[in-house]
């Protein structure tokens, strides 16, 4: 932000150098990036009055201009054609050295001597985008009130420097001349003088010109409207043009310049409508309509939507709220009566519309960062005051002020000792109160504590530590003596949850799985690839990088399958991958993250993956694991899929990817995958191990082959076997056969059973008796001994 020191002195009578001001502001938290001096190389340049203009007798594009610059009139040869007799111009005398380094010397142009030069703003070092319209294609045309022969520094009021200040995002109150004047005043132990808004004479009543305001959107929290009539649209006085150019804005005309001046002065954006262009004589603030169009002041037609906030006259859109007005209500030279808008719009809504339309303005920048809603009435009154003071019109009595929710000031109660304790240097209570009052905080000394009322313009101050920062920066952080850090050192350790995840990763690495990491967002098309419906709890990203990253993942399988497919397409014979990552779910409006584990491989069979998963469960200390055949999962082969349970609670699924899904990829081998609920695994993981003594007595092994119905699960058979005797230590399925000599509705399943007693050696006839018993028990459930 540009802060002209000349302008600031209107509210703060300060007699300090620019360097001193910049240094002190930087000490108190406002970073000054540059000190700009527009007064350099302007010696021997003065104001002059055009007395006579004649055509050059030898050149069609040159003119002989006679000027009065306070001495004997002289004639200058120039090519500029934007002046007329009686205009005030800028004259560089012979011997002047321009900011560009050009030295002005007497010359002859087509045989006629010319002593000096009529100057343009660019030749004085002004940027092209700041030049007023009347001076854009030629020399400077000064305001008529300028006196002849004045030093150009006095005319353009650039004797004082301009500070270029970086405004941090948390300090929108500093995006104004008054805001930075307030900061400067506090830094030098002073208070600013607020400008006047009092109009001595007002006419009529506003109701005679304007019916009122309707707020039909939550994105407008306040709307103030005032009316001025008998408007005379003309060039602004020189001082107003000077202030605007020094603050980085181009002068346009007196009405537009006044609204821009007040915006720069207060930080409150202002807009003026030609009230004759509002046939309904009212303002309706509403959301736009999809496909609605309007032409903005820059001459471009903008297409609006229901997400945009617009100002309408009850029918058509006349402005995009907080960004730019419309051509259909623009103030022109013929305008007689204007409606002055001083409103407050939602910062997020303005930011979204500004970004969508690619339209950034001084107004939108201030609303995006957060304007002060309580300044709206003051700013509107200030515009009326300036219109009256500059003779640009008459002020109509009264105003409309729609302010549905008046916000109270925040209050913070603190013990004054907090300033000393946090800053590390002694700050007395009276000193802290003084600093806060300099910054316009209201302080109530309650004895042991102080109650601080935060001004409306300081939305960034919410907690006691914020007050400590305010006191610290005015006291001067540079004054605080550095001290060595003091504190106890604690050994950092990982949380139990993190240690469990690390243990799981180590186990999976030992089981020859390779870890992968994938994006947390994916495309809705990923669910089609897995034959799955889009989940109801899916979270859609509002502003995605693209369609491929438009939703948050609800499972890990699609990303895992894509990684395996990439390896298969590169002729990798076999892979085993795993990922432990969060999935994201919308549960009744609340966003929830769940940790899951996905496993996948190709190049081995179903039982190879199952064996590794069982080893993983065992090493994680999980007990009571069971499997149940799953035939309805859309992504897996109906005959080669199982749901996994832990203590009768579902924790995942595993199986072979269905053929039609495999055909969508590059796999030449069967693909097996599993997805497990890592949250439940963490909750039940048990890594404490109890010592079991080694049994001295020998074990006896018996194999048994059974004819089992195809749909009957192995886990049920193992459960029956274990129940037959406490001597049975382990049961392992080691072979499954279907084919010749086996009924097509059955399959042969062979188990190895280990018998062992910890107190004695078992006899063969004892084991044989148990074998007979379990064969009978199996027979009762339809499982026969294979003959």
Description:
This protein has 20 helices and 41 strands. A seven-stranded mixed β-sheet has the order 28-32-33-37-36-35-34, sandwiched between helices. Strands 3, 4, 5, 6, 9 and 10 form a six-stranded antiparallel β-sheet that branches. Strands 12, 14, 15, 22, 23 and 24 form a six-stranded mixed β-sheet that branches. α6 packs antiparallel against α9 and α10 (417-423) packs across α12. The longest helix has 17 residues, at 764-780. The radius of gyration is 42 Å and the shape is elongated. The model has no long low-confidence stretch (mean pLDDT 93).
List keywords for this structure.
787 residues, alpha+beta
Give average pLDDT, whole number: 93
Strand content: 25-35%
Strand numbers in spatial order across the main sheet: 28-32-33-37-36-35-34
Helix tally equals 20
Question: Which regions contain 5 or more consecutive residues with pLDDT less than 50?
Answer: none
- The outline comes out as elongated
Helix content: 25-40%
- Summarize the biggest pleated sheet: 7 strands, mixed
The Rg value, from CA coordinates, equals 42 Å
- How far apart the termini lie comes to 94 Å
Which secondary-structure class do the elements indicate?
Answer: alpha+beta
Provide a compact summary of the structure:
The chain is of the alpha+beta class. Helices cover 25% and strands 28% of the residues.
Topology:
Blueprint: E1 2-4, H1 5-8, H2 18-27, E2 31-36, E3 45-55, E4 63-68, E5 74-78, E6 88-92, E7 107-109, E8 112-114, E9 117-118, E10 141-142, H3 152-156, E11 162-166, H4 177-187, E12 202-203, E13 212-215, E14 220-229, H5 238-246, H6 254-266, E15 271-274, E16 282-287, E17 293-295, E18 301-303, E19 309-312, E20 317-320, E21 324-325, E22 338-345, H7 347-357, H8 362-369, H9 376-389, E23 394-396, E24 400-402, E25 411-414, H10 417-423, H11 429-438, E26 442-445, E27 450-453, H12 464-475, H13 496-510, E28 514-515, E29 521-522, H14 525-529, E30 539-540, E31 551-552, H15 557-569, E32 575-587, E33 590-602, H16 606-619, E34 625-629, E35 636-646, E36 649-657, H17 659-662, E37 671-677, H18 678-684, E38 700-709, H19 714-722, E39 728-737, E40 746-755, H20 764-780, E41 784-785
Parallel strand pairs: 12-23, 13-16, 28-32
Antiparallel strand pairs: 1-11, 2-11, 3-4, 3-6, 4-5, 6-9, 6-10, 7-8, 14-22, 14-23, 14-24, 15-22, 16-19, 17-18, 19-20, 20-21, 25-27, 26-27, 29-31, 30-31, 32-33, 33-37, 34-35, 35-36, 36-37, 38-40, 38-41, 39-40
